[in-house]
């Protein structure tokens, strides 16, 4: 066993302890109730490298921290519940919280509902005058959150995409109906002109 004290190193064969004399892991730092450890674990004949953090509350956090002239900065945090924070430790109810932008080639968001119900025969498409009145009174589209709501609560990407698609599909139905009206008016004009000849 290799044992580390605050000032002495005693190299031997076995586990390595820093700050404790009875390490139970291949590399263990701390004391018997509060420690961080790294060791190999075998699961179904597959070797896994395990990083373990334990405290007296039966679970600690992993924090990758940078020390700079302006102070310390937490770069990556994994808390005892498996929540991950990038440049933040405040994950709230999120499994992943990022204090900054995210760049990706593609992001796939799973959806529980979509907006094609607009094309069902029993869907009630609002009259445009009704939509106009709603906009004048509320300063946003029906079924779309207001600016105040978005600034306070943010948006759910899947839900907002569905709502935006709903508006596009409604706009398409309005356009189709307007085109039908134009066609009827054109036929009527052609009939009137033919009678004048």
Number of helical segments with 4 or more residues: 3
Coarse shape: elongated
- Helical content stands at 25-40%
Number of domains: 2
Strand content: 25-35%
Largest sheet: 5 strands, mixed
User: How many E-type strands?
Assistant: 10
What series of H and E elements makes up the topology?
Answer: EEEEEEEEEEHHH
Structural class: alpha/beta
Mean pLDDT over the residues: 85
Distance between the termini: 111 Å
Alpha carbon gyration radius: 32 Å
Note poorly predicted spans: 1-11
- Provide the spatial order of strands within the biggest beta sheet: 1-3-4-5-6
Q: Could you please describe the fold and organization of this structure?
A:
It is a single chain. With 197 residues, the chain is of the alpha/beta class. It has 2 domains: 6-100, no CATH class; 128-195, no CATH class. The chain has helices at 128-138, 147-153, 157-196; strands spanning 2-4, 9-10, 16-18, 27-30, 35-43, 46-54, 62-68, 71-78, 84-86, 96-98. The strands form 2 sheets. A 5-stranded mixed beta sheet has the order 1-3-4-5-6, with no helix packed on it. A 4-stranded mixed beta sheet has the order 7-8-9-10, with no helix packed on it. The protein starts with a strand and ends with a helix.
Secondary-structure map:
Elements: E1 2-4, E2 9-10, E3 16-18, E4 27-30, E5 35-43, E6 46-54, E7 62-68, E8 71-78, E9 84-86, E10 96-98, H1 128-138, H2 147-153, H3 157-196
Protein name: Peptidase S74 domain-containing protein
């Amino acid at each position: 066993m290799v044992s580390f004290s605050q000032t002495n190193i005693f190299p031997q064969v076995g586990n390595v302890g820093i700050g404790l004399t009875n390490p139970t892991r291949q590399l263990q730092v701390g004391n018997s109730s509060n420690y961080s450890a790294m060791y190999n674990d075998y699961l179904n004949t597959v070797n896994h490298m395990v990083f373990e953090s334990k405290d007296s509350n039966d679970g600690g956090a992993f924090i990758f921290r940078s020390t700079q002239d302006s102070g310390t900065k937490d770069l990556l945090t994994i808390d005892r519940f498996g929540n991950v924070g990038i440049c933040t430790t405040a994950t709230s109810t999120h499994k992943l919280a990022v204090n900054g932008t995210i760049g990706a080639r593609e992001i796939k968001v799973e959806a529980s509902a979509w907006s094609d119900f607009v094309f069902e025969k029993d869907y009630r498409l609002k009259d445009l005058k009704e939509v106009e009145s709603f906009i004048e009174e509320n300063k946003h589209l029906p079924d779309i959150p207001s600016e105040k709501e978005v600034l306070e609560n943010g948006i759910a990407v899947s839900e907002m995409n569905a709502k935006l698609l709903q508006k596009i599909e409604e706009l398409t139905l309005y356009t189709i109906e307007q085109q039908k009206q134009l066609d009827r008016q054109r036929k009527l004009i052609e009939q009137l002109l033919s009678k004048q000849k």
